[in-house]
Structures are given as C-alpha cells and as structure tokens.
Write a structure and sequence with these properties.
The chain is of the alpha+beta class. Helix content is 24%, strand content 25%. The chain has a single domain, classed as Clavaminate synthase-like (Double-stranded beta-helix, 4-Layer Sandwich), CATH 3.60.130. The chain contains 7 helices and 18 strands. A 7-stranded mixed β-sheet has the order 1-2-3-15-6-17-4. Strands 13-8-10-18 form a 4-stranded antiparallel β-sheet. Strands 14-7-16 form a 3-stranded antiparallel β-sheet. The radius of gyration is 20 Å and the shape is globular. The relative contact order is 0.23.
C-alpha cells in the first residue's frame, strides 16, 4: 500500500468512534472521543447516527466544564435555556443544574406512585419540545442513582396492529402540573404563572429524521386524550404508560464522575432515580437541551399550542 494511502487509512481509523450497544432496543456507549474539544465532522456524524439508532448514547471519562458542555451540544443543534420553567444558571443560561433536592420545595403531600410515575419526555408541554438532552455527572454517588431510558419506537412497534391504527389517529393534551396526589406550593404556583405551557401533540409522533413512529405519551406531562371521555382517557393512558416502561424496551445507566448521557427526546422517555433520597450521598448533575421542532402525527398534522410561547434558542 502506498505511504499516502496508509496514512489516510490511519487517520480515518483515528476518527472512528467506538459504539458498544448496552441492550437490544436502546442504549450504547461511545468511546474514542474527547468531548472537551471540538469534534471532527466525521465524529459528529457518527455520534448522531448512533443516537438515531440507539436513542440514547453514553460517554465515560469526560471531565467537561460548563462552557465545554455547551460547545459540545452546539455541534448537534441550537441550545435552549437550561429549563424554560425552572430557570437556568446565571452565568451560563443554557445550563440547568440537576441537584439532588431541587424539587424539595415544589410540592406538598404524598405522591401517588405507579409503575410509570416519574417517567417523562423533556418539556412536552411546549409546542416544540427539545430534540435532545445532554446530561453530565459531576458529583456522582458511589452506588445508586442510576437513570433509566425507554425506547418509544420499540414500544409502538410492539403494539398490536389494531391498537397501532387506533393510536395513530389520536392526540393528547400535555401541560405542566403537580404529580397526582399532591398540591403545588406557592413557589411552584408562581413559576407556573410565569411560564404556562399547554400543547396538543399526536399520541403517535413520526420521527422527523428516521420516519419511525413513536408513542409520544410522556407520563409526567400528558394529561388527557382529546375526544375521549375522562374514564376512556385514563384507561387508555394507563395501558400505554404501563406498556412503554416494560423492561425489554429499557436500559439502565450506572453513572460515574465524568459520565455523559445524550438522548433523543423525540423517541425516548426517561426516569430520574428516587433511590438517592434513601442515602446520604450527594448528587449534582448538569443538563443542556437542544432546540426541537414541532411534532407531527401519522396524518402529517402538526401539534397545536394551546397556551404559552415556543421554546427559543439561547
């Protein structure tokens, strides 16, 4: 082989990312990249391809600061405010601090826990929910505190053809509201008044890049199915929520300091850990979200904003 061709081969090999799947339907670890530096176009392409295939990708040993976190995210799209309702870091408005006790003063009362409680797709109350979320672990417990993700495309595919056809024509109303069984505090009520978000999305969303159909049924934000009676809506949603969190559609990620998770918000839901509240361990993570589009259903009809403004780029 000529010397120039050998050098080109070595350079191409050096740019190749290592993709190691973690479960059958969702999740892969990516190695061979340094997220603290600008990535070559080939690595950006390969990471995006892995994200579309595996729905959530993970990186290890990435000791990023806030600016590096933001710079990494911007290689995949426009960033948004850290959180459109709860606020952001003052110096870095794209950063949302995911602290262990960040929800301590939001609700009063005992939460009604069901198998799908806490599972959610980020900010689906907005007309244009984020396309992706990138979460990095800073202060990580030595054990416990895992995050779980589920593949909403695989969940849709596992429905019977009859149920698929029924869901294809439905739409649901998404809004910010306290979990069942609790009342919101004055602090939370004030936050809600500052940024009211209510949207109507298709129950089955067509992925804008892959064309796949996903059950767009975020348990934390989806409140009712349009056109059904309250009892019909409750029964259908509980069936679908129970379905999407079946273990075979999921992956569970064990964090380490410097770990990063990057998930496709258009085809996944995830569950933040609750076990950390049974320990004395601290846990401090940081998240950046990427600007998304307006979902569309199987019929091509886009979502409708009922209250509130679209999420903006920052």
């Amino acid at each position: 082989m000529p010397l120039e061709a050998l050098q080109d081969t070595r350079e191409t090999a050096a740019l190749t990312v290592e993709v190691s799947p973690l479960a059958i339907h969702i999740g892969a670890e990516i190695g061979g990249v340094d997220l603290t530096r600008p990535l070559p176009p080939e690595q950006v392409r390969d990471i995006r391809a892995a994200l579309l295939k595996w729905k959530v990708v993970f990186f290890r040993g990435q000791q990023m600061n806030h600016q590096q976190h933001i710079d990494f995210a911007r290689q995949f799209g426009e960033t948004t405010a850290g959180h459109v309702v709860y606020g952001s870091d003052g110096l870095y408005p794209q950063i949302y601090a995911v602290a262990k006790n960040r929800k301590a003063n939001r609700f009063q009362g005992q939460v009604l826990f069901r198998p799908w409680s806490g599972w959610h797709t980020d900010i689906t109350a907005a007309i244009n929910p984020p396309f992706g979320s990138i979460l990095r672990g800073d202060v990580v417990p030595p054990f416990g505190g895992d995050t779980q993700f589920t593949n909403l495309v695989a969940a849709y595919s596992a429905l019977s053809p009859t149920m698929q056809a029924f869901c294809d024509g439905l739409r649901g109303q998404h809004r910010f509201a306290p979990p069942p069984g609790v009342d919101q505090t004055k602090e939370y009520d004030e936050l809600m008044r500052k940024r009211i978000l209510v949207s109507e999305h298709p129950i089955v969303r067509v992925h804008p890049e892959t064309g796949e159909r996903a059950l767009y049924v975020s348990p934390s934000f989806l409140k009712s199915v349009v056109g059904l009676t309250p009892r019909e809506s409750q029964a259908l949603l509980e069936l679908l929520w129970e379905h999407i969190v079946r273990p075979e559609f999921t992956v569970r990620f064990k964090w380490e300091p410097g770990s990063v998770a990057f998930w496709d918000n258009r085809s996944t839901a995830h569950l933040a850990p609750r076990d950390i509240f049974d320990s004395e361990f601290d846990r401090q993570f940081y998240r950046v979200t990427l600007l998304g589009d307006v979902p569309a259903g199987v019929d091509g009809k886009p979502s409708t904003a009922l209250e509130g403004e679209p999420i903006a780029a920052v």
